[in-house]
Structure prediction request, 109 residues.
Amino acid sequence: MATARTSYVCLACRASYKQPYDRTRQRSCPRCAEPLIHAGSAFAPPRRRDTAAWRTLTVLLNAGVGFHKSCCCGPGYRPRTLREVRERMTYAERSGEPVARSLVRYNIP
Prediction:
């Protein structure tokens, strides 16, 4: 039986790697040897030259937001632009809501 593979991301190299999931093992980037961040099995990487998308992705992953499947619906809403990220971060500051929760909100009240 095949093992489940999930995505790991190197933000410095703007690269994504599909590898078997192992909670105990720390992965490192084959290009720069920096530690890889576990992004989840429903992650679709942006193009390497799309700097705005990688900046958005950096904010999401550093806030602890992953791209994990939840049943058959996928990971749910994730902001795609820096403007959407800024709106949700501002809402988190004003409301006192955790940043990770406000980043995955579809609509801001």
